[in-house]
Fold RNA polymerase subunit sigma-24.
Amino acid sequence: MIFPTEQILNRVTNGDESAFDQLCRHFSTPAYQFCINLLKDHDDAESAIKQTFDRIWQERQLLYTHSDFNSYLFNVLKTVVFENLILYSQQTVMGQYMARMENLYRG
């Protein structure tokens, strides 16, 4: 039997938290492996996974129960990882800019 079944996805769509917990437990290891390969940091990987599952739970009514949940999960996960990488790079650039400005005004 392929996991998740249509029945489990229907339960998730209808707000069944125990069914959602089953999904999270089943996919947490492959999701972590995906994230750690991209982010190279345990805390960042865990944060991305939490954000992904939170997003899926919030948008659960949009789940199409006949589709491939695995593909859906990794598309959402990829989006979250790239959003985090963009945010991190923007923060890094802003920090570097502020440091340069501070040095200019001191000097």
Observations:
- DSSP finds four helices and no strands in the chain.
- The chain has one domain: 6-106.
